[in-house]
Structures are given as structure tokens and as C-alpha cells.
Amino acid sequence: MSKTVLVIDDSPEARYPLARMLRTGGYDIRETATGRDGFRLARLRPDLIVLDIAPPDIDGFEVVRQLKRDTWTCDIPVLHKTAVRVDAEDGQRVLASGADETGRDHPQLPESIASVSPGCGHRTSAGLAATPEAPCMS
Questions:
Q1: Which single residue of 1, 25, 94, 96 could bond 102 by disulfide (Cβ 3.0 to 4.6 Å)?
Q2: DSSP secondary structure, 99-133, as one string
Q3: Longest Cα pair distance anywhere in the chain, in angstroms?
Q4: Is the pLDDT of residue 104 over 60?
Q5: Are β-strands 78-82 and 28-32 bridged in parallel, bridged antiparallel, or unpaired?
Q6: Per-residue pLDDT at 89 exceeds 60
């Protein structure tokens, strides 16, 4: 069974090539342009969420915080992506929001996706690993 990736990005120019690359790599893809639809689709339990930092309706950092607070979605790894350069401060802000990794659009994004391993042991905003007894940290 192939892994499912939810791609949340309001830019079709960014979303389409990423979805195509992932489909070619054997992933099942769900796509949306907004954070609100992303919450809805996250309830379907994808193996990974690739989230643009700036969806049009809800700040990407807030999307991650809400996903990580929800007991149904908190253990889904989130890769925050951006088309702009990410400096150390931005990277820390991404991880502090609860994201598991940050990456830029192509060509580095495939390596970033590979570095996020679905399941337990992902990073949280407190820098702690999730465990089966405590699947999500707030």
C-alpha cells in the first residue's frame, strides 16, 4: 500500500509539480489550496502533510499548531515548505510551531520529504519525541 501525502499550497504552479513528482514516486496525493480544507483532509490521516508557509486563509504556522493540538492529527508529520530562502531564525520558528521539518521548493524538497519519517518519534514544539503512551505533546 502506498503512502499518502497531503499537499496544502495555494499556488497551482507550486502544487502541481510537487504532486506530479510525488505521484511518480509512488505516493497517493491529496491536494488543497487552503488551510481550512487542509484540516478537513488531515482528518483522513495522510502519512505526511506538506504545507506551504502562507496559505491564503490561515497562517501556515497556525495550521501546524492546530494540527498538533488535535489528538486525531497530532502525530502526522508536517513538512513546512516555502519558495523563499529559509534562514536559521525562520527554521526555528517553523519547528517551534510544531512542524517536523522545513524545506524549500525544488530541488531540495524531495530530500526534505525523505527525511521526515511518518509515525512516532517526530519532533514537537517542545523538542520532545512522541511515544505510544503520549502520542502528542501540546
A1: 94
A2: -SEEEESTTSHHHHHHH--SSSS---TTSPPP-SS
A3: 41
A4: no
A5: unpaired
A6: yes
Write down the residue that cell numbers 506530479 correspond to: 20
How distant, in Å, are the alpha carbons of 56, 66, 80, 100, 118 from that of 83?
15, 23, 11, 18, 24
Contacts of 119 (CB under 8 A, 6+ apart): 75
Mean pLDDT, rounded, for 45-73: 89
More confident residue, 107 or 89: 89
The structure's pTM equals 0.71
DSSP, collapsed to helix, strand or coil, labels residue 97 as coil
CA dihedral 10, 74, 44, 19 (to 10 degrees): 40
In a domain, 91, yes or no: yes
Sequence-ordered strand ranges (E) for 1-138 = 4-8, 28-32, 48-52, 78-82, 101-104
Number of structural domains found in the chain: 1
CATH code, domain carrying 46: 3.40.50.2300
d(CA 103, CA 107): 10
Residue 78 lies in a domain: yes
What is the domain extent for residue 90? Answer: 4-115
